[in-house]
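Example record used in the benchmark description.
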Amino acid sequence: MAYNIADAYSEFKKEMDSYREIYMREGHSEAEFDEVYQFCKTQFLRDMAYYRRTQTLSSGWDDMDDEGQNPLLKEHCDALSVTMPEPCIHQYDWLDQIENPSVYQVLESFTPSELELIDLSIFKKISKAEIARMKGVDRTTISHHISRLLGKIKKVL
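Model output (structure tokens):
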């Protein structure tokens, strides 16, 4: 089951708004709440990064035999065995820092090559001419692609 980060962030904001009311009612200052908020936000972003890179497995303890293995799995192990690919760790760690759910959804819709253009030009500060040289295309083509991608992001802001 996929984890909807935009919904989770919306719930986080609602929860933090209710905490703000409680803190203010109890006589805490806005600065004190901001410290708590920043801590919770950092933890929330870390949790989202974790959820994006993992998936839960059912425990299945109820159907294990004495040796700790499912009897069906033991019997049909060769037919069910597969080689798992290496875990995919997202190379764009900056995606985990995106706070705006709308911007995050737009970025998720980008292809890997589009994300690479954003990463190279904005986060790695590589010039458009250098990117064009790396890709073997004209600088104006790269400039056009980057402008188009940034335009999609600006539409949701």
